[in-house]
Amino acid sequence: MVRESPAAKQARVRKIIAVLKRTHPDAKLALDFTNPLELLVALILAAQARDDLVNLVTPDLFRKYRSAADYAGETEAALQAQVGRINFFRQKTRSIQKACAMLVKDFGGNVPDNIDDLLKLPGVGRKTANAILANAFGQPAIVVDTHTWRLSQRLGLTTKDDPEEIEADLVKIVPCKDWTKFCHLLQFHGRRVCTARNPKCPNCSINKLCPWPHKTKAA
């Protein structure tokens, strides 16, 4: 790949964002929620699970449990029964209850709106914390999920494998106002076009902006 200056990379990213906004005008977080607590629970459940399955489970869950105290005070067996369709449901149940117990004890039952406090919660890593900040509190954040990781590498925006290092690379070249939207766009593009095994390169709207050397050819 031809060496690219930071300024040229920033200009290319702006073009990528503009094209993907037209390609995926419906790009948004795939999980359904109405408040920060619901998003926290949904994100814990969504780890290594399909978002559409989580969205099938959470409506009944959110109707039954309205506060962090509701989750923390429930029996583990009862909560497991509510989320048993989702993989690793036992471990995720424990994470939800431990996180909610901490919310009650240390944060007045409210989900904190800063990265340091969010990272204290059981079951919450940097990806989840950034997703909460971006989608529940409207704070610009880069969420490095599997799609952001794969596409940012293929697009030549980073050579890193560590999510925090990828995040650090992206914040330097993606306009701050577009951080959240950029990740949603990569997520949708990764599901619909730039898939892991069979990317649809000939039909990709950003094909000419992509330096990936192994582009698939038209059938």
From N to C, what is the helix and strand string? Answer: HHHHHHHHHHH
Tally of separate helices: 11
Please, what is the average pLDDT? Answer: 95
Query: Whole-number radius of gyration?
Result: 19 Å
Describe what you observe in this structure.
The protein has 219 residues and is an all-alpha fold. It folds into 2 domains: 91 residues, Orthogonal Bundle (Endonuclease Iii, domain 2), CATH 1.10.1670.10; 101 residues, Endonuclease III, domain 1, CATH 1.10.340.30. The protein is 57% helix and 0% strand. The protein is built from 11 helices and no strands. The longest helix is centred in the first third of the chain and has 18 residues. The radius of gyration is 19 Å and the shape is elongated. The chain starts with 5 loop residues before the first helix and ends in a 27-residue tail after the last helix.
Compose a concise summary of this entry.
This protein has eleven helices and no strands. The chain has 219 residues and is mainly alpha-helical. The mean pLDDT is 95.
